[in-house]
UniProtKB/TrEMBL annotation:
Domain of life: Bacteria
Record's catalysed reaction(s): adenosine(1518)/adenosine(1519) in 16S rRNA + 4 S-adenosyl-L-methionine = N(6)-dimethyladenosine(1518)/N(6)-dimethyladenosine(1519) in 16S rRNA + 4 S-adenosyl-L-homocysteine + 4 H(+)
Cited InterPro entries: KsgA/Erm, rRNA_Ade_diMease-like_C, rRNA_Ade_Mease_Trfase_CS, rRNA_Ade_methylase_Trfase_N, rRNA_adenine_dimethylase, SAM-dependent_MTases_sf
Function: Specifically dimethylates two adjacent adenosines (A1518 and A1519) in the loop of a conserved hairpin near the 3'-end of 16S rRNA in the 30S particle. May play a critical role in biogenesis of 30S subunits.
PROSITE patterns (UniProt xref): RRNA_A_DIMETH, SAM_RNA_A_N6_MT
Entry annotated with the keyword Nuclease: no
NCBIfam families the record matches: ksgA
Protein name per the record: Ribosomal RNA small subunit methyltransferase A
Amino acid sequence: MTEQYQHKARKRFGQNFLHDAGVIDRILRSISAKAGERLLEIGPGQGALTQGLLNSGGQLDVVELDKDLVPILNQQFAGRDNFRLHQGDALKFDFTSLGAAPRSLRVVGNLPYNISTPLIFHLLANAELIRDMHFMLQKEVVERLAAGPGGGDWGRLSIMVQYHCRVEHLFNVGPGAFNPPPKVDSAIVRLVPHTTLPHPAKDHRLLERIVREAFNQRRKTLRNTLKALLSSDEIAAAGVDGSLRPEQLDLAAFVRLADKLAEQPQ
Ligand code: SAM
């Protein structure tokens, strides 16, 4: 890299660059991209994962917010005909503009922690385009994504992501793999959108509403937290015990509550 392209990591863009070759290789092997596949990398940074993704022979689009990284990325990769760079905010990016076939897009990113949750929801709004997603996230967030009912990690994020996807917590990554090292542990997660939703809700927005209300006060009983939305009788008619707390319900039970709400005149 020439002097003029030296880049200082920026905190406001959540820049913690991967430099551990073993970790980079393990991530790339987990993704196992093949020639001709449609790949999308969010936040390529200085190209730690980009290089290996391009070497797979896949068609790679990258979305990077930091303008100063554009020359660094172009210098390394602009000559490769399977590389396309989009400078901008991934949270505002229109994924349909990529022209990818349904269920073809393989999304990858060592994500800035401050945008990880909204970005996952932005991507899930186009879940039909996506084959799978591999993300480096804060370990605590991965634990919440992969949680099952009954524990403190089970909440809005677990439920709304598991509504759309199968979630696999692949492996953990310590702070030393990054430059600068973050203050928290990280982990790699794989999200695979369901081809057929296992528990489809009549109205997805009502599921969001029920889950948000229920977990607003997670220590309280459902009868209490949901009283503005559903009566005790309606909760019982949905096959749910109103004396339980929200973390004790599985996804199917939340969908039954949302479907009960959908029966009310809106
Ligand atoms: N992939 C690189 C790596 O593993 O070394 C960089 C990872 S760094 C944690 C996150 C990257 O996302 C940075 O390059 C940052 O500039 C970029 N970024 C931050 N916010 C973004 C956004 N809203 N849209 C697109 N990229 C963003």
